[in-house]
Amino acid sequence: MTSWNLAGLRTHQALSRYSTYEIGGEARFVGTPHSVEQLQELLELAYRRGISPIFFGGGSNLLFPDQPDPDALFLTTREMVEVKLEGDRLYVSAGVPMSMLAVIGYGLGITDFDFTFLLPGTVGGGIYMNAKYFDRHISDTLVKVHYIDLQQPGTVQTISREECEFGYKQSVFQHNRTRWFIVGAEFKLSSIAQAADLTAIPELVALQEGKLPSHQLPEFASHFITWLKTKEGLGGQDAALTPMRKIIEDRVGKMHFSYPSCGSVFKNNYSVGEPIGKLADRLNLKGVQRGNARISPVHGNVIQNVGGATAADVIELIRHVQDAFDRNYGFVPEPEVVIVEGQATQLQQE
């Protein structure tokens, strides 16, 4: 390979287009492979040219830099959307939206994935963070994870759930962030009808045909809320949709989709006994603004882009919250958001 003319490679892309924060400067190279084979070709070319790969999924839990590293290839799985069903095992590639799992579960008549409804991001990102909603985690029904190890980029490795070291918003993949890249996973379904057919789920077919729901928060939320309302219109008050209706009430009520954001910025510190949001509320941090980034007026653990915010604005607010917690509570909250380093100085992790 001697040129950059490869399927799935784009040049001079604004990273703000690839993040739910809608923040990020222009990247020299962005890879959007549709398959593991395309991903491996991009990795091979990057290594030959001395370009460093930076992995991400739907961009829902990260902050891109204002000045990206020009010698980096930003690789996203968002167009890797293969789904296969074999008996009670469901294989899902890393780029499938988390919320699509809820749609698939509804189509198969199971409740295994109800909690993923309206969770932004992709399955790969969800596994990386062990995504949760209340007391349910993406790892609950997980069996295996498939990934590429950059020290052995030519083959796909497999790891069992037990080896993934899952904890509260933790996994072994975070410890190997610069080496391991999730490409797919297998889930064990609680039950499955013998006649189950994924091709009978029109939303999944549309996804695989390239009709992806937008990763921008307002459009993303509207897409899946409209899906639920359509199902209600066809079947009345279907009890199977009740958990998803409650999620809409909770997340829309907290303005999760009103402005670009990454959702919760900090991990909760359960040794303290209260969520970060409530602790921030007590310090009157809601509504505090730096530049065009603002702590949500209704949720103290969400930093919003209220229009044209920069990564520097968000980082300044993160530092402000950390300093306030350190002074008043005696601990520094750990960021959940992944801060991607660029040419400018980034947040120093405590």
Task: Report on the architecture of this protein.
It catalyses: UDP-N-acetyl-alpha-D-muramate + NADP(+) = UDP-N-acetyl-3-O-(1-carboxyvinyl)-alpha-D-glucosamine + NADPH + H(+). The active site is at 264 (proton donor), 336. This protein is globular. The protein is an alpha+beta fold. The chain contains 9 helices and 17 strands. Helices cover 29% and strands 21% of the residues. Strand 8 (132-133) and strand 9 (136-137) form a beta hairpin. Strands 6-7-12-10-11 form a 5-stranded antiparallel β-sheet, covered by helices on one side.
The percent of residues in helical segments reads: 25-40%
Could you describe the largest sheet, including whether it forms a barrel?
5 strands, antiparallel
Mean pLDDT: 91
Numbering strands along the chain, what is their spatial order in the largest sheet? Answer: 6-7-12-10-11
Unreliable parts? 344-350
Question: How much strand content do the residues show?
Answer: 15-25%
Keywords: Cell cycle, Cell division, Cell shape, Cell wall biogenesis/degradation, Cytoplasm, FAD, Flavoprotein, NADP, Oxidoreductase, Peptidoglycan synthesis
Protein name: UDP-N-acetylenolpyruvoylglucosamine reductase
Family: Belongs to the MurB family.
Cofactor: FAD
